[in-house]
Every structure is written in C-alpha cells, then in structure tokens.
Amino acid sequence: MASNEQRRRQLAREKFERQQQRRDAARRKARRRNAVIAAGLAVVVAAGAGAYAAGAFSDGGKRTDAAAQDAAPSPKKGPDPCAKPAPGSPSGKTWKSEPEMSVDKSKSYAMELKTTCGAIDVKLDAANAPHTVNSFDFLAKEGFFDHSKCHRLTTAGIYVLQCGDPKGTGMGGPGYTIEDENLKDSRLKDNVYPAGTIAMANTGQPHTGGSQFFLVYQDSQLPPQYTPFGTIGEEGMKTLKKIADAGERSGAGDGAPNATVVIDKATVAGS
Predict the structure, then answer these.
(1) 20 to 30 A from 43, CA-CA: which of 52, 104, 160, 222?
(2) Distance CA 40, CA 195 (A)
(3) Number of domains in the chain
(4) Could you tell me which residues come within 8 angstroms of residue 109 by beta carbon, excluding any fewer than 6 positions away?
(5) Is 1 part of any domain?
(6) What is the CATH number of the domain that holds 48?
(7) Dihedral sign for Cα atoms in the order 36, 177, 149, 107
(8) Separation between Cα atoms, residue 71 and residue 62, nearest integer Å
(9) Phi and psi for 237 in degrees, rounded to 5?
(10) pLDDT digits (tens, 9 = 90+) for 245-258
C-alpha cells in the first residue's frame, strides 16, 4: 500500500502533468489561431467563375480539451458605432479578364471609401503597383465595391480590416486575378506591414489577388506576399480605430466586425 507521502507525490505529479498538457494545448491553439488569421487573408479564385474559398474563421475542428476551454475567450460585443447603410445592394458583376491598363504611372491617384463608419482616404501607389491601382480604378468606376460589407476584422497577432467582397462572406471576387506587385517595398521591414498600409488578399500563391483587400490599423507581422498598393490617410485611420475598438463577434480575435462596416461608395481619382 502506498504511504501518504507517496500518494501526495503521485497526486502532485499528476497535477503537474495536467498543467503541462493544458499549457501545451494552449500554445498549439495560439499557433493555429495565428496561422488561420494569416491564411484568412488568402482567397482562392476558381478560373472564370470568380468563386473564392476564403480562409476559415475556425481551426477546422472542435476542441473539447480543458485547456482549450480555459483559454477560449468569450465574444466581445461592443456597441455598433456606425450608421445605417445607404439604400442599395452590390452589383455582383464579374469579368473574365483583368481590365486593360489605363492608369498613368506618373500620376497621383487617391481612393475614397465612404463607409457607414466614416470616410477612409487612401493614397494609391500607381508607380509601384500599376496593375492593382488600375484594377481598383476600374472596379470603382463600375460600382463594384458600392454597398459591400467589410466582412472581417482581426484583433490578435494581425490587425486588419478585410473588405472588397461584394458577397460579404469572403467568397466573392471580380472573376479575374491580377499579378503581385511591390513585394519588395522598403516599408515592409522585418516582415511587418506597418499601420496605414492597404494591401491585397490572396491565396499565398503568386498572382492570385482579385478584389479583396485589407486595411492595416496596427503593425502586423505577415510574410511579404500581399501586394501593398497605398497608404491610408489620417482620417481613414481614425475610422479604422473606431471599427477596431468595437471588436469582432467571435471573441477569438478573428471574425466579423461588431461595427456594421459597409462601403456606401468607392471612388478613385487621378491628378
């Protein structure tokens, strides 16, 4: 029969092992979460169909272990700081190929996203990302972004608002893809996309960008494979902060924003 001391040691050892298992599970969860957030900036385009398979908001399976339950945050439901969307719905129009180049790389271009949460002003980089800016100019003139939701907000590890999907689900696009550009931008130091960057979402594979893009409201660690094509102005950053402060619905740091972010109107102008 085990002595009281032996029993005490056995119980202590078992407790320690349970704690280790919980810590290991929590670390695995954190790694999976960050990988999912990064992968969620990706979209897969079905040739000719414009169908996207966006990165999932979950880890791809249910976890029932105690560590996952202890570590899982509860959803944060902040008040919606945004106004009601303007009447209308996304056109859902698609095209078979990238539009012909019409932008002048020597000119300055600016984009304004009039959202329900405020204006987001962007200085576009036509000199270093001409195909991307040309695509946005074309899509804005076609009203492609109008009445579309910004469907995703990440608030842990990566700090971005993702928009540009007329379906509002992460499953939509323009039907064509564009090439990657400006991936050696000097601003992308140490694999960090600095706050104020606007960049394209893609599959992580070359030349798979469509219409979905993300707005970086806080420095975010990401591999340099997402085309940076402009910088967000001061007023735009204020709007993004308002959206970020309202949080996201899942409570896991990656989900639909609590703020009802709808792009009422997108315009691109050159000078």
Answers:
(1) 104
(2) 19
(3) 1
(4) 103, 123, 124, 126, 133, 137, 268, 269, 270, 271
(5) no
(6) 2.40.100.10
(7) positive
(8) 14
(9) -65, -35
(10) 999 999 999 999 99
